[in-house]
Amino acid sequence: MEPARRLGCCTWIFGDWPLAETARAVRAAGLDGVELFGAWRGRDPAGARTILDDHGLAVFSLTPADADISHPDRSVRARALDYYRGLADFAAALGAPMFGLHGLVGRIRPLSTRQEEDALLADSTAEICAWAAERGLTVAFEMLNRYESHQIRTMAEGLDLLRRVGAGNLSLLADAYHMNIEEADPAAALRMGGKAIGLYHAADSNRAAPGEGHTDFAAQIAALDAIGYSGPIVLEHTAPGADPFAADKGAGFRDEVRRQLAHSRKELRAMGR
Fold it and tell me: Which pLDDT belongs to residue 194?
């Protein structure tokens, strides 16, 4: 049996909790690290690093806030690129090895044409990857689902983006929840992605903890083993509730998130992961 992978979670699932409180809960759940939410403006990377170090947590990556890198309006796109330039600086100062990248969550149709916006997406991605490379960072483009984005939703589309951009530090972020919607066979999609996969997110089919929906995580973990993926499993499940884009689902939601993290760790460790 392969050694257990490092486990982490996205910090945004705790909502607007102070990082120290989030770090305490993540460590109490027995996890190894975090994917830090990339709301970098006004934040002190050294202070954040100290908090995480004090709790023995690694920084696996940063997940971006919303920014529309394929918007046909040049001024909107410029603001999005400015955000990512700042995110790259913050990641480098924090000591994170990579950050995620995706289009504006919730924009599910083109404002101009799909062809134009796909070209803009590739151009913006290339520019962001160049900034990241200057700082010694890698970038993981996340494939979302049709209810969150009209662009780059499948592994095949992600691989095509990698070919179009041609950046050596660009990889793909495969998310079990999104694949549950977009891929006929998520495990086969992971095998297709192969060495291009730089990060893996785990949430079940209902956005709950692994083992609480119908996703076949054993098959996906076997696929990750087969392609030689050595990165962490980053948990991104949320408390139950109607709004998929809000972490705060009402009173007691953080207690539910803590319960989910403990359950996820138990479930994945039972698979040898």
Answer: 98
Q: What is the pTM of this model?
A: 0.97
> In 3D, which of 139, 131, 43 has the Cα closest to residue 99?
139
**pLDDT value of position 2:** 59
Domain ranges of the chain: 7-270
Say which residue the tokens 């953080």 belong to. Answer: 254
* C-beta contacts of 45-51 below 8 A and 24+ residues apart: 45/90, 45/93, 45/94, 46/93, 48/19, 48/94, 49/94, 49/95, 51/19, 51/20, 51/23
* Pairing mode of beta strands 58-63, 197-202: unpaired
The 10s digit of each residue's pLDDT in 196-238 is 999 999 999 999 999 999 999 999 999 999 999 999 999 999 9
Beta-bridged to residue 191, according to DSSP, are none
Angle at which helices 74-94 and 114-134 pack, to 10 degrees?
Answer: 30
Q: Rounded distance, CA 250 to CA 235, Å? A: 21
Nearest alpha carbon to residue 264 among 215, 191, 219, 196 = 215
How many angstroms separate the CA atoms of 244 and 148, rounded?
10
pLDDT digits (tens, 9 = 90+) for 146-186: 999 999 999 999 999 999 999 999 999 999 999 999 999 99
CB atoms within 10 A of CB 92: 18
Contact 21, 255 (CB under 8 A): no
What is the structure's pLDDT at 273? 76
User: If you search the block for the tokens 């394929």, which residue do you land on?
Assistant: 70
Rg (CA), the chain: 18
CATH topology of domain 7-270: TIM Barrel (3.20.20)
